[in-house]
Amino acid sequence: MTENQNSKRVYDLEERTYRFAKDCRMFIKTLPKAIANNEDARQLVKSSGSVGANYIEANEALSKKDFLMRVKICRKEAKESAYWLRLINDTNDLDNADEAECLINEAIELKKIFSAIIDKSS
Prior knowledge:
This protein is an all-alpha fold. It is built from five helices and no strands.
């Protein structure tokens, strides 16, 4: 990929949610070893992965009601991911706080995308 192609925002939401979960996992690997970080990281792994997993399920939904329920779960998990990221960022003196902020912003953007999907599908 060229530099320009690589820097383009991902519009394939399945790929974007996958990258979000992957980036959260890579971020977690950089955290200081502490009991609180271990517990917060465990929650972040679950919620960030659940965003994409539920979006995949939404795309395979059997009905509109099923689709909406799955997308609402995606939104909920994105909100939860932002919460854990904020908590980790605010309780650590991180060298990579910018990365944490980027991940928080991505979680918020994903939440807004899922909210828009819900509004347009209701």
